[in-house]
From TrEMBL:
Region (Disordered): 38-58
Origin superkingdom: Bacteria
Species this chain originates from: Streptomyces fungicidicus
Protein name as it appears in the record: Lipoprotein
Length: 205
């Protein structure tokens, strides 16, 4: 869908949540069809071109992003741990930088980060226990999707189904999450694709 095209490229330097919202809304369906997600960080062709070894770095992620932008460098965001969590530019103030890797041929850098509340790993890709998937049942879609993205799920891989009366995409944000998959408490995995069922009013049997 058009909403998802070039998602990461549009938000990597803007620190705006609107594009992430559009990516999630693009997955809304009334019949449960799937929308495949793209690789979550691809604005600077992170796997192409020469690159240096990752070196330790520190400081708030949003500050690092602004510094790279001021230097007219492209950048890509990565989880510093081996969990491969999505690092949301829209929530950059919630993260800190642990390592960075220069890509000279692309005039770009990869920033490896973790949440502010976490300790940086000893090396990029180090193993770490996965957090539990948050409980978003009973929460409005906008807040629910925000929690899932902050938990590490890629916006393009969050799917939304509508039950009951049809809802416009504008109204969908204020609708309540009636069901979620994976269930709350499920250990995070980058392979999971959360699915939220929303309705203007959830009915309990």
């Amino acid at each position: 869908m058009g909403f998802q095209k070039d998602f990461e490229g549009r938000i990597r330097g803007l620190l705006a949540s609107g594009a992430a919202s559009l990516a999630i809304l693009a997955g809304i369906t009334g019949c449960g069809s799937d929308t495949a997600g793209d690789e979550h960080s691809n604005p600077v062709a992170a796997h192409a071109g020469s690159e240096s070894a990752a070196t330790p770095a520190k400081g708030p992620l949003d500050v690092a992003m602004q510094e790279k932008a001021d230097q007219k460098k492209g950048f890509s965001l990565r989880d510093a741990t081996g969990l491969n969590r999505y690092v949301s530019p829209a929530h950059a103030e919630e993260f800190k930088v642990c390592f960075e890797k220069e890509k000279p041929k692309l005039s770009a850098v990869i920033l490896f980060a973790v949440r502010d509340s976490e300790a940086c790993p000893e090396k990029v890709g180090a193993e770490r226990k996965a957090d539990a998937t948050p409980n978003v049942v009973g929460v409005r879609l906008r807040a629910a999707s925000d929690r899932l993205v902050l938990a590490g799920y890629t916006p393009q891989r969050i799917h939304v189904d509508i039950t009951g009366e049809p809802l416009s995409k504008e109204r969908s944000w204020s609708s309540t999450v009636c069901e979620q998959s994976p269930a709350a408490g499920t250990p995070f995995s980058a392979d999971l694709e959360p699915r939220l069922v929303i309705s203007a009013s959830c009915h309990k049997d």
